Amino acid sequence: MSPDMSSQYVLAGVMLIVALLLAFLTLVIHRLFVPHVQKPEQNPPPEHGGRTGHKTWVQFRLRYAVLALLFVAFDMEMVFMFPWAVAFKQVGLVAFFDMFVFVAILISAIIFAWKEGAFDWER
Asked: For the chain, how many structural domains are there in total?
């Protein structure tokens, strides 16, 4: 292993330790500053028999779930495209054609979703 590569592992390890320490620090700060006294009227048991202020069973439109899945899919597209764009000069023409195929598949997915009415709000 080259010295340059071992220094990258050390840097990654330091970043991991810092991230874990920050997560632990937020938990400690939460424990120190948030009051932990609960009043009985704040958290009644679900079996208390009281009436809720609204209808408890609400219909959920599936359209929102489909749009959320489309958003996640195209957000992942950016996750793959950003490193490619940063390293475009080093990777060459083969990576350009690979990304062209990737984008063509994504565009065909957009066209398919459009034809299926995934973007139609009035449906």
From this structure: 1
Q: Is 53 among the domain residues? A: yes
In DSSP notation, the chain reads --HHHHHHHHHHHHHHHHHHHHHHHHHHHHHHHS-----TTTS--GGG-PPPSS-S-----HHHHHHHHHHHHHHHHHHHHHHHHHTHHHH-HHHHHHHHHHHHHHHHHHHHHHHHTTT-TT-
For residue 121, being part of any structural domain is answered with no
pLDDT digits (tens, 9 = 90+) for 89-116: 888 888 889 989 999 998 898 899 889 8
Range of the domain at 87: 3-116
Q: Which residues contact 81 (CB under 8 A, 6 or more apart)?
A: 99, 102, 103
pTM of the complete model beyond 0.90: no
Residue 1 has pLDDT above 80, yes or no: no
What is the rounded CA–CA span in Å between residue 111 and residue 123?
17
